[in-house]
UniProtKB/TrEMBL annotation:
UniProt keyword terms in alphabetical order: Dioxygenase, Oxidoreductase
Keyword Ion transport: no
Protein name as catalogued: 2,3-dihydroxybiphenyl 1,2-dioxygenase
Any GO MF annotation of the entry: dioxygenase activity
UniProt keyword Oxidoreductase present: yes
Classification via InterPro entries: Glyas_Bleomycin-R_OHBP_Dase (IPR029068), Glyas_Fos-R_dOase_dom (IPR004360), VOC_core (IPR037523)
A Pfam family the protein falls into: BphC_D1
Length: 302
């Protein structure tokens, strides 16, 4: 019933760096700032899709999933409640901040806040990328994908697949990596989870451009500006995305790529891959030196 990753929000003491990093490196467009200085960024005609709020430390604030209608929102809320998840109504201030018609939120079993909304505000014909580029693959495929760190992958599967209805695309098992990839629209995955015992958090956000040149130009810009590249250019085994990974000024990684496959549920068969990459994606010294994700410890049995 979830249709797409509609928006995502972080907080960071370095939020103001996104005024230049967002448009000039990533190609996102600045939207109106929040009253508290929040930097809001656009990837298409949606009002905004990525928000970086002021904060004392890097944190994931919320992951925003879209549903089609108010009725779908009520039905999914009921389903969560039936499975013992407490669902909260979004406040008028939160709903205005997210630029949606209605919103509820809940914490997943690992303490990560998810929001469900309908009626995202769109402004057709108004998106202009922050630098010369061909734009992003969004629309019905949503903003991109998010990868969570979870302490128990089976418990995560029970919740995200069993309760929320995400559909398994495939798995990558390359010890110590144990990851599952889920779709909710044609994008190969809108959500992935990777297991790390005792920990939960956010690892990376993927943005998909319309051309390989957009990715190569971003790579050059990162090198020129000293933005830490954590994985070199490479191509994934499962979604066939050609991408590189950078460490963003808000403490989470960004996969910046192009050419991901789409999933058709009628003839899709989930595979298991023993490797993440066909070629490239080599870890740099930044990969070793910088935090792998925004993480918090999770008590056993939570
Ligand atoms: Fe990714």
């Amino acid at each position: 019933m979830i249709q797409a990753l509609n928006y995502i929000g972080f907080s960071s003491p370095r939020y103001e760096e996104w005024l230049t990093f967002g448009p000039e490196v990533l190609g996102l467009q600045l939207a109106d700032r929040g009253e508290d200085g929040t930097v809001r960024l656009r990837a298409d005609d949606a009002a905004h899709r990525l928000s970086i709020h002021p904060g004392d430390e890097h944190a994931l604030e919320y992951i925003g999933w879209g549903v089609h209608t108010e009725e779908d929102l009520a039905a999914l809320t009921q389903r969560l409640t039936d499975h013992g998840t407490k669902v909260h109504e979004g406040t008028p201030e939160e709903i205005a901040d997210r630029a949606v018609a209605g919103m509820v939120w809940f914490d997943d079993p690992f303490g990560i806040r998810h929001e469900l909304s309908w009626g995202q505000v769109r402004l057709p014909g108004t998106f202009h990328p922050g630098r010369a580029m061909s734009g992003f693959i969004t629309g019905e495929q949503g903003l991109g994908h998010g990868v969570l760190v979870v302490p128990d992958i089976e418990q995560a599967d029970d919740f995200f697949s069993g309760v929320l209805g995400f559909r398994l695309s495939d798995r990558i098992i390359d010890p110590p990596l144990n990851a599952r990839f889920y779709h909710c629209n044609g994008r190969h995955h809108s959500l992935a989870v990777a297991e790390m015992p005792g920990m939960a958090g956010f690892q990376h956000l993927m943005l998909e451009t319309r051309s390989l040149d957009d990715v190569g130009i971003a790579y050059d810009l990162c090198e020129e500006r000293g933005v830490p590249i954590v994985l070199t250019m490479g191509r994934h085994t499962n979604d066939l995305t050609t991408s590189f990974y950078l460490y963003s000024p808000a403490g989470f990684h960004i996969e910046y790529g192009t050419g991901g496959v789409t999933v058709d549920d009628d003839n899709w068969e989930p595979a298991t891959y023993p490797k993440t990459k066909i070629w490239g994606h080599r870890g740099t010294r930044h990969r070793d030196e910088l935090p792998f994700a925004i993480l918090h410890p999770v008590n056993e049995g939570l």
